[in-house]
Amino acid sequence: MKILFQSADADAQESMDLLAAHLPWARFHLWPDGKDQAHDVAVCWKPPADFFQGRGFRAIFNMGAGVDALLLDPALPADTPVYRLEDAGMGAQMEEYAAWAALTYLRNFNVYARQQKQAQWKQLEPRVRESFTVGIMGLGLLGQRVARYLSGMGFMVRGWNRSERRIEGVQCYAGEAALGEFLAGTRMLVCLLPLTPATRGVLNRELLSQLPRGAALVSVGRGPHLVEEDLIALLDAGHLAGATLDVLSREPLPPDHPLWRHPLVTITPHISAQTLLSESMRQIGDKIAAFARGEPVSGLIDRGKGY
Ligand code: NDP
Ligand code: OXD
Predict the structure, then answer these.
(1) What pTM, to 2 d.p., does this model score?
(2) CA 44 distance to own-chain centroid
(3) Pairing assessment for the beta strands 265-267 and 240-245 based on DSSP bridges
(4) 279: exposed, middle or buried (Cβ count in 10 Å: 0-12, 13-18, 19+)
(5) Is the minimum distance from the CB of 304 to ligand 1 under 6 angstroms?
């Protein structure tokens, strides 16, 4: 089997070497080496415009959970199966990130950080996590992990998803009709949806206004879910108390973007769940080995749904 390996990240060679160690029987090229040869399989992350042109891959393995950028590539062959990373060490990180945000908003640590800048010594009313409800949009692999983790910590947790879910300790809502009820009781909203035509711009003024006054937003899915000017307007109006944004409409976020300096906004550079090379390459190695044996491979993207 011949594998064309491409990564926009600096550690492309290291990643490919790790994968090659799992698949000693395969032959590898690191893009753009071997670009004029035929390959059976592509392993890629943020491929350049000419990566798919005229290449008859039998399968494509995405080195990430989200495939939104890949599916927008006009040269992506329509009938070639695309597989994504499933958790691969990202779930534990997402749990930590959501827990950090939940504790921050529960205990007003963001407010105390602002107060410190003004040498202000002022205690706020205490709150307990049993009455602080975290709502998670998207109960897929990562959303379910976050839901279970926060529920285990003692937070009230609810989740909203396209299809019905049953998760112990988590109040589950499904479909558009249940969205309003889900939002009305959510103090901290975590977005873990994939980016698709149906979810682009979903975090807009209309939706965020349905959260109770004083709620917070944690955006960790993809930047284009959020209409950033709507968020700023709701923060400035006092409807939302804070936003923790790990994904932005433009990454890196330009230095002059108003979100950088907004007092109620915390920004991290797309690190809520980073790719762990060793776990990711082991998983992709297992997927390619199963594919080579003609066995079913998990993590297949449904092109119709867009994730
Ligand atoms: P999954 O595909 O496992 O889960 C997606 C979930 O979203 C599914 O439960 C799906 O519902 C639900 N969903 C999809 N569309 C809609 C919709 N229109 N309305 C309601 N629910 C919907 O993905 P993962 O959990 O693995 O990852 C989620 C996203 O997290 C990724 O797509 C990626 O964008 C982002 N991500 C961000 C990272 C970061 O560092 N910031 C790291 C990794 C991922 P159903 O069950 O019905 O299909
Ligand atoms: C992913 C990501 O989708 O890192 O895997 O954002």
Answers:
(1) 0.98
(2) 18
(3) parallel
(4) middle
(5) no
As given in the structure block, the two tokens for residue 34 are: 């071997």
Structure confidence by residue, pLDDT tens digits, 32-82: 999 999 999 999 999 999 999 989 999 999 999 999 999 999 999 999 999
Nearest to 47 by CA among 25, 70, 28: 70
For 307, residues 6+ apart whose C-beta sits below 8 A from its C-beta are: 66, 67, 68, 194, 196, 301
**Which pLDDT belongs to residue 285?**
98
In single-letter form, the type of residue at position 8 comes to A
Q: Give yes or no for a contact between 199 and 193, defined as CB atoms under 8 angstroms apart.
A: yes
Of 84, 222, 225, 262, the catalytic one is 222
Tokens standing for 2?
């011949």
Cα separation, 217 vs 285, in Å, equals: 36
Token pair listed for 86: 């499933």
The greatest distance separating any two alpha carbons of the chain, rounded to the nearest whole angstrom, comes to 67
Q: Which residues of the chain have pLDDT under 70?
A: none
Q: Say if residues 10 and 3 touch (Cβ distance below 8 Å).
A: no
Residues in contact with ligand 2 by the CB-under-6-Å rule are 64-66, 85, 275
Cα-Cα-Cα-Cα torsion 116, 118, 120, 123, nearest 10 degrees, comes to -50
Element counts in the chain: helices (H) and strands (E) = 10, 12
Task: Please state, in angstroms and rounded to a whole number, the distance separating the CA atoms of residues 212 and 218.
Answer: 15
- Tell me the C-alpha distance between 175 and 170, whole Å: 16
Residue 172: name the closest of 196, 148, 153 by CA.
Answer: 148
**Active-site annotation holds for 222:** yes
- In eight-state DSSP terms, residue 233 is H
Token digits of residue 207: 């939706």
Number of the ligand 1 atom closest to the C-alpha atom of 194: 32
Separation CA 271–CA 253 (nearest Å)? 14
